[in-house]
Design brief:
Blueprint (H helix, E strand, L loop, with lengths): L2 H16 L1 H22 L5 H25 L4 H5 L3 H5 L5 H31 L4 H5 L2 H21 L3 H29 L6 H10 L1 H14 L2 H5 L9 H25 L5
């Protein structure tokens, strides 16, 4: 990134840090994570077994929505304020504008996640610090994937309210309806669909991949068998490839659209 793009990253981070939505979400995430950690600590020796899976469930519900909302106004917000043309007239490539907005918003999300997990670590004590710190990077990957999706939605829509509505719909789809759809598929086919195919569909969903990887990390691989999954986790390179695709492809498409589509400028 050039000097202008780096300045845009700092501007995005500062704007998001001042955003009431980010502040409220950071506080909410911190309170919920702290409450989960405090409740688990009261269980004594079973604290780790309770804190990890509970936080995984909390993160898989909250962070995708936060990431999508963080990204949903990146481009369409500039268009509605009639500042997109001014922004694109700066001595910076249009692709750099998109990547700068993505980077600044992901940094803001990282701060919010750090506040939440840090508060949980303070409440839970030193014994849970290692476990909670291991949750930071996977949580950030999940959030970054939805920030990237939010920016793509922001690029192809013409109104913020439309972008916000689509983000909420996508959140419901990936977090709630996706697994229900797979369950419906199994019921409709009377279990004829192979376990390998169902597992691949679960792993293709960033929220599903996060849940199964973190549940296996905190509660052991046997927890997946309890959930009805007899297929092992994907190889590490496969998992990282899926995360890279969800993060890079949407923001890359946004950069291409903003660069080559005159209608979107």
């Amino acid at each position: 990134m050039g000097a202008v793009a780096r300045a845009l990253v700092g501007h995005e981070l500062l704007e998001r840090a001042r955003d009431r939505w980010v502040l409220v979400v950071s506080l909410l995430f911190g309170l919920l994570a702290s409450g989960t950690s405090l409740y688990a600590a009261s269980a004594g020796g079973a604290a780790d077994a309770l804190t990890g899976p509970s936080l995984v469930t909390l993160v898989s519900l909250l962070v995708p929505l936060v990431g999508g909302v963080l990204g949903h106004d990146a481009i369409v917000g500039e268009r509605e304020r009639n500042t997109l043309g001014l922004l694109l007239s700066l001595p910076v490539a249009r692709a750099e504008v998109v990547f700068a907005k993505f980077t600044g918003r992901v940094l803001a999300l990282a701060i919010a996640i750090g506040i939440g997990l840090g508060a949980a670590a303070l409440v839970g004590g030193a014994g849970q610090f290692a476990m909670l710190s291991g949750l930071f990077v996977p949580t950030l990957l999940l959030g970054a994937a939805f920030v990237s999706l939010g920016i793509l939605i922001s690029t192809i829509t013409s109104r913020q309210v439309t972008a916000a509505s689509l983000i909420v719909a996508i959140w419901f789809l990936f977090v709630f309806f996706y697994d229900l759809g797979l369950l419906g598929l199994l019921i409709a086919t009377d279990g004829a669909v192979a376990q390998e195919a169902i597992a691949q569909l679960v792993y293709a969903n960033p929220a599903g991949l996060f849940r199964v990887e973190m549940m296996a990390a905190f509660a052991g691989p046997e927890v997946l068998e309890g959930l009805g999954m007899t297929v092992g986790l994907p190889a590490k390179w496969v998992s990282m490839s899926i995360w890279a695709a969800w993060i890079v492809v949407p923001v890359g498409l946004s950069a291409l659209l903003l660069t080559y589509s005159r209608r979107l400028r």
